[in-house]
TrEMBL record:
May also have succinyldiaminopimelate aminotransferase activity, thus carrying out the corresponding step in lysine biosynthesis. InterPro entries: AcOrn/SuccOrn_fam, Aminotrans_3, Aminotrans_3_PPA_site, Class-III_PLP-dep_AT, PyrdxlP-dep_Trfase, PyrdxlP-dep_Trfase_major, PyrdxlP-dep_Trfase_small. Belongs to the class-III pyridoxal-phosphate-dependent aminotransferase family. ArgD subfamily. Its cofactor is pyridoxal 5'-phosphate. It catalyses: N(2)-acetyl-L-ornithine + 2-oxoglutarate = N-acetyl-L-glutamate 5-semialdehyde + L-glutamate. This is Acetylornithine aminotransferase. It is found in: Cytoplasm. Keywords: Amino-acid biosynthesis, Aminotransferase, Arginine biosynthesis, Cytoplasm, Pyridoxal phosphate, Transferase. Binds 1 pyridoxal phosphate per subunit. The modification N6-(pyridoxal phosphate)lysine is found at K244. Pathway: Amino-acid biosynthesis; L-arginine biosynthesis; N(2)-acetyl-L-ornithine from L-glutamate: step 4/4. Signal peptide: none annotated.
């Protein structure tokens, strides 16, 4: 038997965290890491945040799970808070981002079905998109590395270059249900859409009765400096998928929709055994308690500006390695210059300098700290990055 007990779909990694303290992780041998990966933009409040921890502990002792066979005062309360603070009129809770995207796709198709236009089942999505790993969500990207060997995939998706409005509009035909798009691509390489692009998609949807579906699984929940990223684009979606930061580390996702867009999602059309259970709702509630405190999103914007400036100042000192900084708020990326490889540089910074980052597409290193970082974490990150840049040797091409 040579297969590992854990299905070997991830590479081996010598960082094996056993404890977390704020913006730091502690490994098996007691070594410390500055965590600017935050569980891939999940640990919005860092590790061991007292309010989140206590809410989960108290709820676990009170009532953990009952299924959706019964009424949910906990779910109603959290859904109402999300509705009160967003474009949405209604929320479906899931356990992950991919499930939130699945619900968003189903809601969009079902809307047109409810209108007597079941032929409008195609969503236009975008190159380099990442929407999750279920069969539906891998069908919604054209990235070969996600799809290869899993065919046949779900039909009903068309792919346009990201941030190219004309190309997206060109793909519209009588079967188009709408667009599915990340306002800021995460996995694809921290690419923020231009305002003209998202506003153009919104306008096309309004004119043609189509739906704008946003995937804010990574860029939502404070990451870019507002509750949701769309707020900074002067538009509102019809449907939105959320996850990652929404539970601060507790597995939770949500599909948000307007009343109109959700009109097909009637009794019996969708469901989940765990979705929205009392324990998950307690975690989601604790996150909102902290995020909706006055000044939280402003703190993210301030720290985002400082981190970005500090990174930009560092670039000229290592201009053979670093190309440029991109992103919004605390969803930042550093584009590397060849022959450096982002995945390789991330491993180097992790193993030799105690700094945790995440690789992304387009040779970008993602910088995704907890949203509660302070100035000292910014300085420490930049110092470790400079050291890592100085000691880094790119892999040889052969
Ligand atoms: C992470 C991510 C997903 C998938 O979320 P999971 O919780 O891993 O299923 C979907 N869309 C985007 C934009 C993501 O970043």
């Amino acid at each position: 038997m040579s297969i590992t007990a854990l299905m070997p779909v991830y590479p081996r990694c010598d960082v094996r965290p056993v404890r977390g303290e704020g913006c730091y992780l502690i490994g098996e041998r007691g070594e410390r890491y500055l965590d600017f990966a935050a569980g891939i933009a999940v640990n919005a409040l860092g590790h061991g945040h007292p309010h989140l921890t206590k809410a989960i502990q108290d709820q676990a002792a009170t009532l953990m799970h009952v299924s959706n066979l019964y009424g949910s005062p906990q779910g109603e309360a959290l859904a109402q808070r999300i509705v009160d603070n967003s474009f949405a009129d209604t929320v479906f809770f899931t356990n992950s981002g991919a499930e939130a995207v699945e619900c968003a796709i189903k809601t969009a198709r079902r809307y047109h079905y409810a209108n007597g236009e079941a032929h409008k089942h195609d969503l236009i999505t975008f190159h380099n998109a990442f929407h999750g790993r279920t069969m539906g969500s891998i069908s919604a990207t054209n990235q070969p590395k996600m799809r290869e060997g899993f065919e046949p995939l779900a039909p009903g998706f068309k792919y346009a270059p990201f941030d190219d409005l004309d190309a997206a509009l060109e793909l519209i035909d009588d079967n188009t249900a709408g667009f599915l798009v990340e306002p800021v691509q995460g996995e694809g390489g921290i690419r923020a859409a231009s305002p003209e692009f998202l506003q153009g998609l919104r306008k096309a949807c309004d004119e043609k009765g189509m739906l704008l579906v946003l995937d804010e699984v990574q860029c939502g929940y404070g990451r870019t400096g507002s509750y949701f990223a769309y707020e900074q684009y002067g538009i509102e979606p019809d449907i939105l998928a959320s996850a990652k930061g929404i539970g601060g580390g507790f597995p939770l996702g949500a599909c948000l929709a307007t009343e109109e867009a959700a009109k097909g999602m009637v009794f019996g059309t969708h469901g989940s055994t765990y979705g929205g259970n009392p324990l998950a709702m307690a975690a989601g509630g604790a996150i909102l308690d902290v995020m909706l405190e006055p000044g939280f999103f402003e703190h993210v914007r301030t720290m985002g500006d400082r981190l970005r400036n500090a990174l930009e100042q560092m670039i000229p000192n290592h201009d053979g390695l670093f190309d440029s900084v991109r992103g919004m708020g605390l969803m930042l990326g550093i584009k590397l210059k060849e022959p450096a490889v982002s995945r390789d540089f991330v491993a180097h910074a992790r193993d030799n300098h105690g700094l945790l980052l995440v690789a992304a597409g387009e040779n970008v290193v993602r910088v995704l700290p907890p949203l509660v970082i302070e100035d000292n974490h910014v300085s420490e990150c930049v110092q470790k990055l400079s050291e890592a840049a100085r000691s880094y040797t790119p892999p040889s091409g052969d």
